[in-house]
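Good morning C.,

I know you're traveling, so I'll keep this short. The sequence:
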Amino acid sequence: MGSVAKTSTLIAAEQVQGAPVHDRTGHSLGSIDDLVIDRNAGNIAYAVVAVGGFLSFGSRYFALPWSAMEYDSDLHGYVVKLDREQLEAAPAYGRWL
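The tokens, ready to paste straight into the viewer:
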């Protein structure tokens, strides 16, 4: 998919995977590990965010609604309206996909 060009509003999924996720203050929370797509609607439903660990070992995974994420071009990543404590209080999963 390296030949897929991104536009101002479209981007290939492979370019989203690995993107950093920050809280509102710009502190790093983790990175996008995967995307979950609603096959009937054809939209991204969730971003699976990996938090902690090293090279995916020991990471915890959180499914965050795609609608809760906003791209920040200054941070070159996504911002959510959660802080680390709120995120870590949410249900987490091991490597699930």
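Safe travels,
E.
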